[in-house]
Amino acid sequence: xxxxxxxxxxxxxxxxxxxxxxxxxxxxxxxxxxxxxxxxxxxxxxxxxxxxxxxxxxxxxxxxxxxxxxxxxxxxxxxxxxxxxxxxxxxxxxxxxxxxxxxxxxxxxxxxxxxxxxxxxxxxxxxxxxxxxxxxxxxxxxxxxxxxxxxxxxxxxxxxxxxxxxxxxxxxxxxxxxxxxxxxxxxxxxxxxxxxxxxxxxxxxxxxxxxxxxxxxxxxxxxxxxxxxxxxxxxxxxxxxxxxxxxxxxxxxxxxxxxxxxxxxxxxxxxxxxxxxxxxxxxxxxxxxxxxxxxxxxxxxxxxxxxxxxxxxxxxxxxxxxxxxxxxxxxxxxxxxxxxxxxxxxxxxxxxxxxxxxxxxxxxxxxxxxxxxxxxxxxxxxxxxxxxxxxxxxxxxxxxxxxxxxxxxxxxxxxxxxxxxxxxxxxxxxxxxxxxxxxxxxxxxxxxxxxxxxxxxxxxxxxxxxxxxxxxxxxxxxxxxxxxxxxxxxxxxxxxxxxxxxxxxxxxxxxxxxxxxxxxxxxxxxxxxxxxxxxxxxxxxxxxxxxxxxxxxxxxxxxxxxxxxxxxxxxxxxxxxx
Length: 578
Fold this sequence. Notes:
It is built from 17 helices and 25 strands. It starts with a strand and ends with a helix.
């Protein structure tokens, strides 16, 4: 069973039957049955056992059994009675391992000898039934809250049916050093539970119950953690235990696929599984959407080709290419072309990571955007040449593309771009926008950059006129010159209020501050460089263009200025509606 996969039913939404069906469809070999899911089911444990067998699922763990050890004699008697009833249930269920969490009970005392003695007694009762007890240190356990402490107690108890359960969240959330896991004999690591998480400064119980993520979606180094467990000689399944409010409300089938994708990527990272490597992505080949060609003309683009078989026009300036698809109604970005060193290899990796692949070759991102893998300029042969590209107005290429994600798919999108395309995610940032808090995360590097945005909460009918904005950011070498040229050509550039520039003057002593104000160019800086950028008004229902200039080693996206241009966009739309 070494290297096999499992998932706790608590990770998914729906009834126990819904969860089991989703886990099986996603390719999991086993499940952890969460007690509340079984209690709410109308099926008996034996019926659930048969259902799992029909679905091809093992039942690897029954959990949780709480507040057992280091208690007074009368409480111990009641706990042993409770345990024996659960062992009867597990026998009917066909589960041979039970998870026992370190106690948070007010009845418990800080006595390792007593805890070890009582766990030995529990293991003796379990062993008589062919059941193993996996003892786990909860990060908020009353007295036992580290894996090192749990292992000391298990070692002191000295029973063949008693081992430890290692949970990545409980260990990494406390900033514990996982290297000592290698000193635990592999045969005494009875179970491994994996969860990622964002780094948050909050109560660890609340963090655990609401903000866990699948591997690759958060900030934990799960590859290193899992490597330590495997080095110790662990032979059991890699199992996911993720408490997350979004996942527990989402359709369980795609959520289970996303969970499996996370384990495929993790197993690849620790050398347990071979999948096609992610070919190098060298840049943006094109962005496809529906916008009036006249707008692109005012930005300096030239109509350079027409597709041979489809109603699609090619517009170009420098190496920036925009495909205008006349069949796209809402103006949204429908496809992104990325230059791959091996397009077929990119498609093979996507397929191995369970992403839906089309013959183009292309793959569908979680938000529906088609990601097309291009071989340099080979794809241009599909277009009949039109005009020769003009000198333009300073745009040199596509710097990045910003895609707003549905809130429920924000973490899924991060995992998709990280695992399927091999793009490196940056830390999550949040900023206060005119209509609430927005979460943002960039993925990529110098070749391909994408930003993923999502509104954290949306309630009621009060909402912006553009609920899911997208934009394409073009690179240039002189933002001020580009802004002047585009304004003179009639480009619909967004006007930025004077208050912004008054504040900019107070914060920075810029020799070109007057030019920024005159041309509605925004400004940001970090320790490595500077960033100048300006935006068009909305073109269609939800898309706008941005022109950016990076100076020095600036790697950001001017997020500090986002609320300013979001407000300006709304004001402009309201003025046009009057």
